[in-house]
Structure formats: C-alpha cells, structure tokens
C-alpha cells in the first residue's frame, strides 16, 4: 500500500506520524521497523499512530512504535507532535484534547504561543510498579528518594551505579553525572536498558545539575538508542531531582536537540511537560 505520513520532531526527537483514522493501518513489527529505518525507510526514533478512541470520553487513541518495531507505552515529545498533527490535519478544532495511550489517558494542550503542554499524569515511584526488581538490594535514602545500586559488567570489571527508578507510563533509570558531555552514555546505556532487574527493559537517563532550576540531560532510549531529546525521560529526571532535594519546580531541561520545561508539585500530582513540536515534511512510501 501507499502510506501517507508526516515527518515531525520535538526538540530533535523525531517521528513519523500516521493518520490511522482516514487510512487503514495494520502493520507487523517488521513493517514498523522498516518505517523507522534511516537508510531503507523514512527514519525516526518513534512512529506515532493516530486512531479513533476505544475509551469513552477520549478524543483520540495514540499508539507508539519504537525504531526497533516494538510498541511502547508512552512518549512525551511524541504527544506534543500528536497535538500539532491532529490540529494541522483538521482532525480537531479543540486546543485541549484527551488522548488514550497504552499507559493511560493524557491531556495535551496547544498553547497560544505555539508550544504544547502535556499533562503526563502522576509519576509511578514504587519499584515493583516501574517495574524494577529490588529484591536483595539495599537502597540508599537521599531526601525523599531511594537510590538503588545497579551493578554493571564493564569489560570484566563490575561497577555499581546509583539510580532513581521512575515510571512516566514507561520505565526510567536516572543517574546524576558531573558532565553529560563526558558521561558514558553509549557504553553503559545499553547495559542499563537490558539489565535483568528491569523486566521490560528501561530508558537510561544521565542528568547533570546546572542549578536548582536547570539541568542538562541525555537519554539512552529503550529500543532506540540515544535520542536528541526524551520527553518522558525529562519528566523522570526532574521528578528524581526534586525527590533527591536537588531541584525546584519548574525546571528547564537542556537536551541535545532543544529545551523543554517540566513542572511537578509533588507526589500524587501530575507532571506537566511543555515544549515545541515542528512539522518537517509530508510524504508517501510504498510499504
């Protein structure tokens, strides 16, 4: 079939966005992977599928497929692209919508200045619900957070790294580093992603504290590799930093592809993610 798509990005985190309302989409993991391939397909970190909702009270259903073809629960930067897409395509005239995802319902809003704010829901902080297997580990308490030691095998040597574990609808392991430019993201990111204590794999965040309202962040994403920005990773990092007593809301997050703003009022409260979304081009591909 000839598939119509839109290429978009949010702070450099790039997407293929597909209207699944006006065209029938039923692809295999191999076909999703082909779309995400930067040499043989369109190329993207994630493919986003817009569908009719299956839950009452929702405006749309939002499905996310990583570049490896696997479906995942949530994507913060993608949710902003989603809002811009349905607005530009005339699929809604509303500035605020409710969107069904695999991780639950989110509430994105198109702001008057063109930026997009997404209510990402409250973070999940209980290790077993992330999910993270903490059995036999002794966590280190820091302010309101518990830092968990994660043992990594590095060329025959073993290194223990202290992690905050948070779910923003998808699992994150966040560590604080002195400098994100020299952090071993490509070396340890895959080891963290596939660590056996994370049964569903995990996104690995490397956070540098600039001051109490500003961080720099790199994220090695599950099923993708390092991306230029990660919306849920930014949310998880800020939650971890606030719980550790290192940050105050709101927090500016500098990713390699741009800036995001994260606000969080504390346990049980939703995380608000604000940032840009950009349409790059429209196209068709035979698939």
Please characterize this protein's 3D structure.
This protein is mostly beta strands and 287 residues long. It has 2 domains: 2-119 and 277-286, Diaminopimelate Epimerase, Chain A, domain 1, CATH 3.10.310.10; 127-269, Roll (Diaminopimelate Epimerase, Chain A, domain 1). It has helices at residues 29-36, 76-88, 185-193, 231-243, and strands spanning 2-10, 13-19, 46-51, 60-66, 71-72, 99-101, 104-110, 116-119, 140-142, 145-154, 157-167, 171-176, 203-211, 214-221, 225-227, 251-255, 258-264, 271-275, 278-286. The longest helix has 13 residues, at 76-88. It is globular, with a radius of gyration of 18 Å. The model has no long low-confidence stretch (mean pLDDT 96).
In short:
Helices cover 15% and strands 42% of the residues. With 287 residues, it is mainly β. The protein folds into two domains: 2-119 and 277-286, Diaminopimelate Epimerase, Chain A, domain 1 (Roll), CATH 3.10.310.10; 127-269, Diaminopimelate Epimerase, Chain A, domain 1 (Roll).
Give the domain tally: 2
Number of discrete helical segments: 4
Radius of gyration: 18 Å
Strand content: 35-45%
Fraction of residues in helix: 10-25%
Shape: globular
Instruction: Give the number of DSSP strands.
Output: 19
- Report the average pLDDT across residues: 96
Helix and strand composition category = mainly beta
């Amino acid at each position: 079939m000839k598939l119509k798509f839109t290429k978009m990005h949010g702070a450099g985190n790039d997407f293929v966005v597909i209207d699944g309302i006006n065209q029938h989409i039923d692809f295999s993991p191999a076909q999703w992977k082909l779309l995400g391939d930067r040499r043989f397909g369109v190329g993207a970190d994630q493919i986003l599928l817009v569908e009719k909702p299956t839950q009452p009270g929702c405006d749309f259903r939002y499905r996310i497929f990583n570049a490896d073809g696997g479906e995942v629960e949530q994507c913060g930067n993608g949710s902003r692209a989603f809002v811009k897409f349905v607005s530009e395509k005339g699929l809604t005239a509303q500035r605020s919508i409710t969107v069904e995802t695999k991780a639950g319902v989110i509430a994105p809003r198109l702001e008057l200045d063109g930026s997009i704010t997404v209510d990402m829901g409250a973070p999940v902080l209980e290790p077993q619900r992330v999910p993270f297997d903490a059995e036999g580990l002794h966590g280190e308490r820091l302010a309101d957070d518990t830092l968990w030691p994660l043992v990594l095998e590095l060329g025959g040597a073993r290194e223990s790294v202290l992690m905050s574990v948070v779910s923003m609808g998808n699992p994150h392991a966040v560590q604080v580093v002195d400098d994100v430019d020299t952090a071993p993201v490509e070396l340890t990111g895959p080891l963290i992603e596939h660590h056996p204590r994370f049964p569903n794999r995990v996104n690995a965040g490397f956070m540098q504290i600039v001051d109490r309202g500003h961080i720099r962040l790199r994220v090695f994403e599950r099923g993708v590799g390092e991306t230029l920005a990660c919306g849920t990773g930014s949310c998880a990092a800020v939650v971890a930093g606030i719980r550790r007593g290192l940050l105050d809301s709101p927090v500016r997050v500098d990713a390699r592809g741009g800036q995001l703003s994260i606000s969080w009022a504390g346990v049980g409260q939703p995380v608000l993610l604000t940032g840009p979304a950009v349409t790059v081009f429209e196209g068709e591909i035979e698939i």
